Amino acid sequence: MKDTTGRYSQAENISSPKSPHPSRFDPSTVRRAHRPEQSRGTCSGSRAESRGRLTVRLDCLRQAQAPSLSRGARRGPSPIEGPLTPDRAALVIFAKAPVPGQVKTRLCPPLTPDEAATLHGSFVLDTLERTKAAVAKLKLPLDRYLACAPSSTLVFFKIMEERHGVTLIDQVGDDLGARMNQAFETMFTWGYKRVLIVGTDVPTLPLDHFKQALALLETNDLVLGPALDGGYYLIGLKRTAPDLFTDIPWSTDQVLRLTQEKVTKLGLKTALISPWRDVDTIDDVQTLAEASTLDAKKPKNEQLFSSRTAGALQLIAKRLRSRG
């Protein structure tokens, strides 16, 4: 792929203090600086696809070997070291690797596949950072797992595991419902009594929402975090409920309503936490960009947006205006 000058370029490591654009997201920041003259495994010598200041390393994200046994489907004790105490709960973060053309495709056009993947990648990092902060600051008894698609063997996910202290599992199933059901079954098989699943499309989700969801699971069978578009961004269960995840038209505005109808039939005691906006359409992106502008005027300790995501949103908003 070519950069804006028409020449091939290597992705720079923007985590370096020499980087002129610290707010942008680049998956190359989750690995050491690229040195083509020295072999560093499957990612050595990779090229980067660039569009101005938004850069996505492609081959590092694509290269994967299918595992002989999916970690998401295996049976046995939890991979978390030490005994699993009754108060421990699992938080499973569902994420796709930020590969252009495979994520946030509903944003394209007007976004390019690179821009959509860059934004998605920043959201993944936001979710990892915010969940880590929630556990630490609110002292939540949560073990964090990253449910990976298409494969936990991708270098991107391996570095997320190392940098953010999450345990990797694979997403297993033909659709989103099957994959979530499999994740719940795996966690309950490993001995957890409370399990939360959250997506990565809510980069500004307040930390307290995780505390609320966990507390509500003490007295309820099911907790849902409604999204403003008719879906949900978070779901929590105390036991498996496979019927919740069948015959649902995923990625539509019917998801929450049909799920609640199933809940009634199953007799599950349910609680809702506060609705929040997730990011599925270009209108969502533009609304988020406007919110990030206002957020930047707040004191730093009150800001919800990471500087990385705020920078990416502002750049995308500028490009959209220039494209008319």
Question: In one word, what is the shape?
Answer: globular
CATH class of the largest domain: Alpha Beta
What is the number of strand segments? 9
Q: What's the main sheet like?
A: 7 strands, mixed
CATH superfamily of the largest domain: Spore Coat Polysaccharide Biosynthesis Protein SpsA, Chain A
Mean pLDDT: 81
Which second-level CATH architecture of the largest domain applies?
Alpha-Beta Complex
CATH topology title of the largest domain: Spore Coat Polysaccharide Biosynthesis Protein SpsA, Chain A
**Count of helix runs:** 8
Instruction: Return residue spans where pLDDT drops below 50 for at least 5 consecutive residues.
Output: 1-53, 55-76
Residues in helix, %: 25-40%
What does this structure look like?
The chain is an alpha/beta fold and 324 residues long. It folds into two domains: 1-75 and 85-279, Spore Coat Polysaccharide Biosynthesis Protein SpsA, Chain A, CATH 3.90.550; 282-322, no CATH class. Helices cover 32% and strands 14% of the residues. It is built from eight helices and nine strands. The chain has helices at residues 59-62, 113-137, 155-164, 176-189, 208-216, 255-266, 282-295, 307-322; strands at 48-51, 54-57, 89-96, 142-149, 167-170, 195-198, 222-226, 232-237, 270-272. It has a seven-stranded mixed sheet, with helices on both faces. Strands 1-2 form a two-stranded antiparallel sheet. Helix 2 runs antiparallel to helix 8 and helix 7 packs across helix 8. The longest helix has 25 residues, at 113-137. It is globular. The two termini are 25 Å apart.
